[in-house]
Design brief:
Rossmann fold, three-stranded mixed beta sheet, binds NADP nicotinamide-adenine-dinucleotide phosphate, 338 residues, seven-stranded parallel beta sheet, alpha/beta
Length: 338
């Protein structure tokens, strides 16, 4: 993707102030933890900074008292991010509209695309902005009719999911992410914004918030995903930070540790967590799938080693137990969330 050449010459390592949208979210919270740990000042946007249930875990982070500020902003209010973005050198746009069952497809697409453009319109107004890192998704890459793909294909950043195929399966989340990322690229090109996108697969790991967000609750719905990539939340945060700091970062970055079929996943979970009742198999609703991801671009950026699947699920389960969402293994008599 073309970008303003001047931006490419500098590495963004000065640890200035960065804006993280949707700060209370699963990925954003971990990203903020990492930023604070490495000395950045962070301005996080949330819809309700006074809601302790949503922001309490952020205020408890090491360095938060000195270097974290939370302000109100809403994706659906035009200009809402102006002040937050204006104060920062880097913007990490992770906020994503929460989709409820009553939302129509149109509402979901409208809020995903216009929310992203709303943030980028604020970015355009900031002459000191160095780079925008947008959290997109591997669902913008991998969802195609398997019969259109060679067996064992390694999908890379040049691949885009088929909107028609996603629509035929009514996977509106993917349609929204594809259209939002494409709109972001177009806007960034037109307005010379230095944009980089990170495309995580299914993000697994500790949940900093004691509240279960949509992703953590989603772990009960693996069946609908079929063959899927998995990545540790700490690697996702590293990828965002490297994509911001590296002078030569550009374009899209797939962030993935391993791709598993559903039977591989359940077998791993059953072996790893024998105390919990893990289903022996899950129905395969998509038929044979064999794709993988080429992560050489993220590795070249500096993400040499991804944490393994065992570690990411261990960390996720530990955090679910710590927050009281799962019984400790020795007391496990109820059904596991898997
Ligand atoms: N988790 C994954 O496995 C995964 C994988 C690939 C890509 N992603 C992408 O990563 C990003 C973060 O995902 P996540 O799992 O961390 O999601 P999450 O925990 O649901 O966090 C999303 C955040 O967006 C904020 N938000 C929702 N509607 C908003 C609105 N109208 N205005 C402002 N903020 C709003 C919410 O903040 P408040 O409710 O506090 O305002 C929420 O904390 C998303 O873009 C998602 O598509 C996630």
């Amino acid at each position: 993707m073309p970008v303003a050449p001047a931006f490419r010459e500098m590495a963004n390592t000065a640890k200035g102030k960065v804006c993280v949208t949707g700060a209370s979210g699963f990925i954003a919270s971990w990203l903020i933890k990492r930023f604070l740990k490495s000395g950045y000042h962070v301005l996080g946007t949330v819809r309700d900074p006074g809601n302790q249930k949503k922001v309490g875990h952020l205020l408890d982070l090491e360095g938060a008292r000195e270097r974290l500020e939370l302000v109100r902003a809403d994706l659906l209010e035009e200009g809402s991010f102006d002040d937050a973005v204006m104060a920062c050198e880097g913007v990490f746009h992770t906020a994503s509209p929460v989709v409820t069952k009553s939302d129509s497809k149109e509402e979901m697409l409208n809020s995903a695309i216009n929310g992203t453009l709303n943030v980028l319109r604020s970015c355009k107004k900031n002459p000191s902005l160095k780079r925008v890192v947008l959290t997109s998704s591997s669902s913008t890459v991998r969802i195609k009719d398997e019969s259109d793909l060679p067996p064992n294909v390694l999908l890379d950043e040049t691949s885009w999911s088929s909107i028609e195929y996603c629509e035929s399966l009514q996977i509106w989340y993917a349609v929204a992410k594809i259209l939002a990322e494409k709109a972001a690229w177009e806007f960034a090109k037109e307005h010379m914004i230095d944009l980089v996108t990170v495309l995580p697969t299914f993000v697994i790991g500790p949940n900093l918030s004691p509240e279960l967000g949509p992703t953590a609750s989603d772990t009960g719905k693996f069946t609908v995903y079929g063959r899927m990539g998995y990545v540790h939340i700490d690697d996702v945060a590293s990828c965002h930070i490297m994509a911001y700091e590296a002078a030569g970062a550009e374009g899209r970055y797939i962030c993935n540790a391993a791709v598993l079929d559903l039977d591989e996943l359940v077998s791993l979970l059953a072996t790893r967590f024998p105390a919990y009742r893990v289903p022996k198999s899950l129905p395969n609703i998509y038929g044979e799938q064999s794709y993988g991801f080429d992560t050489s671009k993220a590795r070249a950026l500096g993400l040499q080693e991804f944490k393994g699947v065992e570690e990411m699920f261990d960390d996720a389960v530990d955090s679910l137990v710590a927050h009281g969402h799962l019984p400790a293994a020795k007391n496990a008599t109820t059904r596991c969330v898997f």
